[in-house]
Amino acid sequence: MTDALTAVGLHRTYRLPRRGPFEPGPIRTAVDGVDLVVPAGARLGIVGESGSGKSTLVRLLAGLEAPTAGTVTASGRPVVASASAAAMRWFRRETGVVFQDPYASLDPRMRVGQIVAEPLRAMRVPVSGSGSGSGSSHAGMVASALERVDLPSDAVDRYPHEFSGGQRQRIAIARAIVHGPRILFGDEPMSALDVVVRARVIELFHSLAAELGLTIVLVSHDIGVVQRLCDTIAVMSAGRIVEHGPVSLLDAPTHPVTRALVEAAPTLP
Ligand SMILES: Nc1ncnc2c1ncn2[C@@H]1O[C@H](COP(=O)(O)OP(=O)(O)OP(=O)(O)O)[C@@H](O)[C@H]1O
Ligand SMILES: [Mg+2]
After folding, report:
1. Is 183 within 8 Å of 95 (Cβ atoms)?
2. Average pLDDT, the chain
3. I want to staple 9 with a disulfide (CB 3.0 to 4.6 A). Which of 70, 117, 150, 248 is the partner?
């Protein structure tokens, strides 16, 4: 199996605002030396207490932010977050990202059709089929992405505010997969949803992973979500991965951090 993503020696620090005119701001370490291999087709769940560096790690892996030190490679090619849009287009085409808040992540002034088509334009995805107008062929890709996430085809002409929270998260997922990525990143994509909708979105991730052969990197504070969706887990604490292995680790946790997370999790019915 080839590696979809490899991270070596990742560090990310932030300088916090200065405290006084002559005092530089303190440095906070968000990610503190992470080595990680994500094999193609793996479904990795990243768990850990709040502030342990999960979101920062995902931004580094997704090439949305540059590490202070260390490297990320995808299928052997370096991912350079600071490179130009043109230089990074190959990686953007291979990846899709879904964030937590389906309200904040969708532009309320754009119709759903435009929102979902946006990555195709930004990534200059070639129009498929024999149609001459770029609009028409992209429209086909948009329609099939909406169909994949179970949204009605008339959704294209409507605005995000006309949809429920769960439907909006489906719109965000359609946008993340419309260009046919190989890796799907999610940062708490289910946590704004109620339990019933959450279960349906978990199902959706499952079927997308199976049908499209996606590699999934999913941050969740919800152990139950990770148990249902992932085959591998990485447990973070204070910017480091303290435990990494099959998701069955959660059944009999040995590391104290993992044990604390499992014990704090509500038991599923
Ligand atoms: N842009 C930033 N500027 C300053 N500090 C930051 C920034 N982003 C993250 N941090 C700090 O880095 C640490 C890790 O943050 P991160 O958001 O990655 O944690 P997390 O595990 O995703 O937490 P949560 O579960 O609450 O989402 C925290 O101490 C946070 O305050
Ligand atoms: Mg976070």
Report:
1. yes
2. 90
3. 70
Q: Judge whether residue 269 has pLDDT over 70.
A: no
* CB environment 113-140: b (16+ within 10 A), e (fewer): bebbbebbeebebebeeeeeeeeebbbe
Which residues have C-beta within 8 Å of that of residue 46, sequence separation ≥ 6? 54, 57, 58, 217, 218, 219, 220, 233, 234, 236
CB 14 near ligand 1, within 6 Å: yes
- Please give the pLDDT value at position 145: 93
**Probe residue for ligand 1, chosen from 12, 28, 68, 185 as the CB with the greatest number of ligand atoms within 8 Å:** 28
Nearest CA to ligand 1 atom 31: 51
CA 128 and chain centroid, separation: 26
CA distances (Å), origin 95, targets 79, 161, 214, 224, 236: 12, 26, 10, 25, 23
103 CB-near residues (< 8 Å, 6+ apart) = 160, 165, 168, 192
Ordered by where they begin, the domains of the chain are 3-18+26-264 (3.40.50.300)
Ligand 1 atom closest to 31 (CA): 14
For residue range 120-135, what is the model confidence (pLDDT) as tens digits?
Answer: 988 888 776 544 444 4
